[in-house]
Design goal:
heterodimer; A: 112 residues; alpha+beta; ATP Synthase, domain 1; 2 domains; five-stranded antiparallel beta sheet; three-stranded antiparallel beta sheet; 35% strand; globular; B: 300 residues; alpha/beta; Pyruvate Kinase, Chain: A, domain 1; 5 helices; 6 strands; 61% helix; 13% strand
Chain lengths: 112, 300
């Protein structure tokens, strides 16, 4: 089963799911539940999920597997982004940065 | 030593050093082609999927009117993205692209459109600025190893101008397609507005699935199309990079071959000159000796 976060909310896709094309949110966490193995988790920033013919493809602008996330760097990025949000409430770039950093941390299995 | 001999020696030495340089360039280019091809391969699945998704949306939701899909009724301006290389030494690579771009310009102008060139690659930029052509955008410095960020930057400029009412109404791209190590073709494609092809569904084709959209078809299209344009530009940049290296390898190979041929001809000329000199010296000595002998015989 594949769980992704679209702009409408979370969507879970089981085998034989009807064809769907969804827009993914900035800073979402994608989870692939596999039989007999651990979950495959990835931080996915923007992009699409498309389901057709029992195949799920995720087209992301930027994506990173949870196991490959550099936790220290992500935390650092989060702190920096939050600092600049506090300094300037309307800093849209920093808000996106913070979302991305959070998604990376969550994908790596860290508490945010 | 004769003056001619010295001259030939000097020329051989200089051609030899040129041959060394072109040979090295050739080897560098061949190793770069492989890397460029790998990059092309890596980008392929993404492009395939995004094309499939766009096809899915457009064929499912024919009623979707999006500024990026609908051709304007009276187009007045066309943007042409010309993909060239940053460095030379690649034979006719840039000349071919620019010639094709000129042909397209003529074609568009005959339709009554004014043409705005968008240029990537230092060679193309110089070509345009030398002719005082105003460019809608120019990008240099990544022709050998383009990254997705470069493609995104270009796509953003193009789309912005496309959405603008006074901006461009069509986007064409002139680039080089990498067919094989030996064949690269200049291709002209229209990327926007999308060309919708009506095709008869054959029996072998799967019926395109009826998609559900999250949240709506229009929203999906809104964010899908820019990605599609980016991906098309990225592919064009990557193919152009691979073609550039292939063209460079070929140009450098023929330069090396020519240099070797020159060295052969000069060596032959040099040997001839040397032999002529030796023959002359011998006949001078023989002539001198016999003249002395004759003089001695005359005294007796």
């Amino acid at each position: 089963m594949v769980i992704a976060k679209t702009v409408d909310g979370e969507i879970g896709i089981m085998p034989q799911h009807a064809p769907v094309l969804g827009v993914l949110v900035e800073g979402g966490v994608l989870r692939v539940k596999r039989e007999g193995e651990g979950d495959l988790v990835a931080a996915v920033h923007g992009g699409f999920i498309s389901v057709a013919d029992d195949e799920v493809s995720v087209l992301a602008e930027v994506a990173e597997l949870g196991s490959e996330v550099d936790v220290a760097a992500a935390r650092d990025a989060l702190d920096r982004a939050q600092a600049s949000i506090e300094a300037n409430q309307e800093d849209a770039d920093a808000a996106i940065e913070a979302k991305r950093a959070k998604a990376r941390l969550r994908a790596a299995g860290e508490e945010v | 030593m004769g003056a001619q001999l010295r001259l030939l020696r000097r020329r051989i030495r200089s051609v030899k050093s040129t041959a060394k340089i072109t040979r090295a360039q050739e080897l560098i280019a061949s190793s770069r082609i492989v890397k460029a091809q790998m990059r092309m391969q890596a980008a392929l699945p993404y492009e395939r999927e995004i094309t499939r998704a766009v096809t899915g949306v457009v064929s499912n939701a024919a009623s979707v009117d999006h500024p990026l899909t609908v051709a304007k009724e009276n187009p007045s301006k066309a943007g042409v993205l010309v993909v060239t290389s940053d460095s030379g030494f690649c034979g006719g690579f840039n000349a071919n692209v620019l010639r094709e771009a000129e042909a397209l310009r003529g074609l568009l102008e005959s339709r009554g459109l004014s043409v705005v060139p968008f240029v990537t690659g230092r060679k193309g930029v110089t070509w345009h600025s030398f002719r005082n052509r105003e460019m809608g955008g120019q990008w240099v410095g990544f022709s050998r190893a383009p990254s997705y960020r470069n493609a995104k930057e270009i796509a953003e400029t193009l789309i912005e101008s496309f959405k603008d009412d006074n901006g461009i109404d069509e986007i064409h791209i002139v680039s080089t397609e990498f067919v094989s190590m030996l064949t690269q073709n200049v291709v002209v494609k229209r990327i926007l507005p999308l060309e919708v092809e009506e095709t008869e569904a054959s029996e072998t084709d799967a019926i395109p699935p009826y998609f559900e959209f999250e949240p709506t078809a229009a929203d999906v299209l809104e964010s899908l199309l820019p990605r599609y344009v980016e991906s098309r530009i990225f592919t064009a940049l990557l193919e152009s990079a691979a073609s550039e290296e292939a063209a460079r390898r070929r140009a450098m190979k023929s330069a090396t071959d020519n240099a070797n041929e020159l060295i052969r001809v000069f060596t032959m000329q040099m040997n001839q000159a040397r032999q002529a000199e030796i023959t002359q010296e011998i006949s001078e000595i023989v002539g001198g000796a016999s003249a002395l002998a004759d003089a001695a015989a005359g005294k007796e």
